[in-house]
Amino acid sequence: MLGPSLLVQPITAMGLATTNVYLPAAEEAATALWFDLHTAEQHVSAPGARVLEANPTLTIAPILTLALSLSLSLSLSLTLTRRARARGVRGAAGPRACLRARWDRAAQASK
């Protein structure tokens, strides 16, 4: 955890296909909503179902944020994306673009 609302799962082995990410909540009996900053996919952390199986890549580690702090986390993620692009990391898509595309698809689907 980086503070109370940003979670980064470190990848410590080469060629890792999947990794388990524990998504905590404020209290043991509480439910928490987490968002993947790379894909804008939402994940519910509920009692008895707090582990997410993530698929890391060589250049992208799982980074998740609590729903309540999404705008702050997006700013941090945008900074990280800019730094990755400056270093020449390919495929460093910005999280805002991912979220915007997801929200646009949801808006189109609800019409």
What do these coordinates show?
The chain is α+β, with helices and mostly antiparallel strands. It is built from 2 helices and 6 strands. The chain has helices at 70-86, 95-110; strands at 6-8, 19-22, 32-36, 42-45, 51-54, 63-66.
Task: Indicate the topology.
Layout: E1 6-8, E2 19-22, E3 32-36, E4 42-45, E5 51-54, E6 63-66, H1 70-86, H2 95-110
Distance between the termini: 38 Å
**Mean pLDDT over the residues:** 75
| Spatial strand arrangement across the major sheet | 1-6-3-4
Structure classification = alpha+beta
Could you give a short description of this structure?
This protein is of the alpha+beta class. The chain has helices at 70-86, 95-110, and strands at residues 6-8, 19-22, 32-36, 42-45, 51-54, 63-66. It is built from 2 helices and 6 strands.
Keywords:
111 residues, alpha+beta, Immunoglobulin-like, 4-stranded antiparallel beta sheet, two-stranded antiparallel sheet, 6 strands, 22% strand
